[in-house]
Structure formats: structure tokens, C-alpha cells
Write a structure and sequence with these properties.
Shape: globular
Distance between the termini: 34 Å
CATH architecture of the largest domain: 3-Layer(aba) Sandwich
CATH topology of the largest domain: Rossmann fold
Strand content: 25-35%
CATH class of the largest domain: Alpha Beta
Number of strands: 14
Helix content: 25-40%
Number of helices: 6
Largest sheet: 4 strands, parallel
Structural class: alpha+beta
Mean pLDDT: 89
Amino acid sequence: MKINILSRSASLYSTKRLIEEARKAGHIVKAMNVLHCDIKLEKQKPTVYYHGERIVTPDAIIPRIGASITFYGTAIVRQFEMMNCLTTVSSTALVRSRDKLQSLQLLSRSGVDMPMTVFTNFGEHTDDICKQVGGPPVVIKVLEGTQGIGVNLAETIEAADAIIDANNELRTRVIIQEFIKEAGGADLRAFVVGDKVVGAMKRQAQKGEFRSNLHRGGTSKSITLSKQE
């Protein structure tokens, strides 16, 4: 297969590993900086140009779209989809994954357990909001954020009020969630391809930190999930 990896840089560790494994499996693979791609739209002739040259449609693409370029990257992925190119991550999935509220709504509809969550339109009734999720303490998250950025733990109503007010001033929407103390700063991540779990890991926050993100100093190890998990 001819595979294009849409990545900001071929030197990124994850991109290099994808290239290595693809070539080991006998595929023809190259990395493309998604920001250097242009879209051309005309009737029934969707095309993508790279550095000004029209590219031959590959058999598949592997999107590695960072949060800061979601809008542009998603448009490029959508164009490849219009060209009947297989993608490991659909444009719709990319958009959903970057919106915490929409992700939670989809998980809720599918019957997946989650912390109690409240979303409000720049709400000022902090007492009621916190009570609805069993707090304080409560976790307050901006809707679009990665690597633990924009995630705060409010131990008191006053702290929650200050965080919510600050975000309201910036017109930044947030969700307020139940704090799961017994998790001890740990979480599980399962990697799913189609309808099959192909791998899983446990992340553990460093001492004194409730966020398990590796970018916040957390650690990770591979695990085998239980049948229930």
C-alpha cells in the first residue's frame, strides 16, 4: 500500500515509529506536513496539492493532527475522504475527539460510565452546579484542551467560583465534573481499532498532582484489561 502520514514533522518520535513499522510491513510510506497541503474543489474532482504539486491519491492516510491545527487538519482529512482514500481516523472522529462535551455525550449515549458532568451557559450559580456533581471538590475543564492544560481542581465553592468567573470573563466554556478521589490520580486508556481493544495502559499522576497526563509528569505502563473493562 501507498500510505501518507499527515504530520507536522517526520522527525517526531511517533511519526518515525509509524514510518518504520509501515516499511517493515512492506508498505510505501511518506510523511507530509499537513500545513503545506492545499485543497482544490471542483465538481466531482476533489484534489490535494502538496508544495504546489498535485498528489496522486494514496491508498491510505494516517492523520497525526495536533490540537492547534484541528480545523485545517480536519479539512485536509475530509478532502482525502472525498477522494475515496482510506483514513485510520475519520474527519468526524477528529472533530468529536477535540470537543470534550460532545465526546461525553456520545459516551453517555453508549452507556459508558463516567464522572457526573455539568455544562452550563457561562453559569454564575456555582453552588448549584457543584452540588449537581457531588462537590466540592470538583474538576473544571475547558472544552478544548490537551495534555492537562485548562484542567483545574477546585477544593471549595470559592475556588470553583473564581475559576468559573475567570473563564466566563474570557468567554471560555467549561464543564464541571465530579472528582473521583478513589482513583488516586490514575486512569486507564484503551486503544480501540474498529471494535477491538488492541492495547491498554495505566497512567499515574505524580505525587501531589491529580492529572495523570504524561505532559504533567505522570507515568505510564502497559496493562491487560479485565473482561469488564
